Amino acid sequence: MPRKKTYHHGDLKNALIEAGVDILSKDGIGGLSLRRVAQQAGVSHTAPYAHFANKQALIAAISTDGYRRLYEAISASAQQYEGDPARQLVEGAWAYVQFALSDAAHFKITLSGVVEKEKDYPAFIEMSQRSFALVMQIVEDCQKAKVLKRGPSDLIAVGVWGLIHGFVSLILEDQI
Amino acid sequence: MPRKKTYHHGDLKNALIEAGVDILSKDGIGGLSLRRVAQQAGVSHTAPYAHFANKQALIAAISTDGYRRLYEAISASAQQYEGDPARQLVEGAWAYVQFALSDAAHFKITLSGVVEKEKDYPAFIEMSQRSFALVMQIVEDCQKAKVLKRGPSDLIAVGVWGLIHGFVSLILEDQI
DNA sequence: ACCTGAACACCGTTCAAGT
DNA sequence: ACCTGAACACCGTTCAAGT
């Protein structure tokens, strides 16, 4: 018996997010519409409104998923190189670059800041803050190990993040 | 005699860009449509196609204008504090922050990298590169004056830019 | 060259209705 | 609770036509 095509009792909400990520990877940000997402999930074009207030809310959920992906990648390499903060920093940066290169549209919509997410999407805020806190933790461990100079770790973490992001942006714009 | 409302022999192209910037400041990115831009410029909704291949091209022009605004602001403060690179750096950063805060939507659409501009918009590429070159020049002057540590100036410029951008992003997302 | 108006396919969102 | 189908206003883009 084939898997049921309907999400009537399933997890339509996550199916819609997955469909959105899939569309982003295939057709970019321009191809992302609520109606296409619904169609790909096998439901009518109004069904998403049972789970998301509007398109912005779906985009916020997709962005939250993007941050989770980033968090998990950095976290995985941090665990792998436990006790070696310099390596954790460089591998974390590499995870960031890999996400950007392997799924540019998902990366961009997650980190662009173009969509107004800050107001009504606490899950997005929380996931982005967890990611930043993880980077700050690695920065602090690097400071203790004398890999990075002393100073305010939050400021240095913003600098590290910004430096990596700047590089990735140059790569994505083909200027490097 | 009031100024003619028609751009039949005027500069519709720039009028459309101005209208776009105006709409961005009033209604944000969600409010930016070709039809609204045309209406605000006082022409039919198909007139923009005489000057822009599509909506992306108009957005690229608006983004180019954003980079020019950034370039001119940083350039103005660089001239004002000629011979004081430390001051040039801090005032240039302040100009960046001011642009972001005074016109968040224009700033975001310019610097988000969400739109695919790199391919067919050489004016955009050129203006963004000029802005980056200016920052790099200030960084090099700071290095000569021992305000910044020695090292590859392009890399340090990316870091400086990224640090400022990271701060601005935190401010715009109300996380600071 | 520059602009118009009709037309097409597509979109976000609402709403009454069905299970 | 979860989903459907019709409906509405709006959008990007094309095209034949007008000056």
Topology overview:
The structure is a homodimer of 176-residue chains.
Chain A: H1 12-27, H2 34-41, H3 55-80, H4 85-102, H5 104-111, H6 122-144, H7 153-172
Helix pairs in contact in A: 1-2, 1-3, 3-4, 3-5, 3-6, 4-5, 4-6, 4-7, 6-7
Chain A binds a DNA duplex (19 and 19 nucleotides) through residues 6-9, 12, 33-36, 43-47, 49-51, 54-55.
Give a written overview of the molecule:
Two copies of one chain form a homodimer. Chain A has helices at about 10-25, 35-40, 55-80, 85-100, 105-110, 120-145, 155-170. By secondary structure, chain A is an all-alpha fold. Chain A is elongated and about 55 Å long. The termini of chain A are far apart.
Structure keywords:
homodimer; 176 residues; mainly alpha; 0% strand; disordered N terminus; DNA-binding
Provide the gyration radius of chain A in Å: 18 Å
> Which ranges of chain A are low-confidence, i.e. pLDDT below 50, for 5 or more consecutive residues?
1-6
- Could you tell me how far the N terminus lies from the C terminus of chain A, measured between alpha carbons in angstroms? 51 Å
* Estimated structural class of chain A: mainly alpha
Oligomeric form: homodimer
Q: Strand count, sense and closure of the main sheet of chain A?
A: none
Residues in helices of chain A, as a percent range: 55-70%
Percent strand of chain A equals under 5%
